[in-house]
Amino acid sequence: MSDSTKGRNNDLLKFKAEILEAGIESCLPCNLSHTWLQELSRQADLMLNEDDDPDGSDCAEIAGVVIRILFYQSEQGTDLLSLSADVLLKHVQSYATELAFEEIYRKTDIKYEAATVETILKRERILHWKQ
Questions:
Q1: What share of the chain is helix, strand, coil (3-state, %, to 5)?
Q2: Interhelix angle 123-130/85-107, nearest 10 degrees
């Protein structure tokens, strides 16, 4: 196993422990460390611009956090069995918008109402915020 593969595996294990297994609230951008906020923003950009990462190999964390939230929001999780790539990308786009809101909030005096686990991937929330 190459050093870069080992490093990537370590990153994935750290993300799993710090975010995915730490409870659903830890998936919210307002609860992310600066490091994870930046990394998830980077991965969302890669995932939404397929030309930059055509095989999606560097987007495991962003996909994982969105799927984790979707699973939580789904009563039985059965809807996730047929989750298409297009639908996943729409949710990644919504999550990326929330990441951007949080980053703006941390860098400026602009306040916003942070998303909850119930509202985080709802496009209506983003449209409402813009009004």
A1: 70, 0, 30
A2: 40
Question: Do 101 and 29 contact (CB within 8 A), yes or no?
Answer: yes
Residue 57: helix, strand or coil by DSSP? coil
- Helices (H) and strands (E) counted in the chain, each on its own, are 5, 0
Q: What is the pTM of this model?
A: 0.84
- The CA distance from 74 to 72, in Å, is 5
Tokens 């050093």 sit on residue: 3
pLDDT of residue 109: 84
Q: By the 8 A CB rule, do 61 and 40 touch?
A: yes
For 30, residues 6+ apart whose C-beta sits below 8 A from its C-beta are 102, 105, 114, 115
DSSP-assigned letter for residue 94: H
The pLDDT, as a whole number, for residue 131 is 44
Which has more confidence, 5 or 108?
Answer: 108
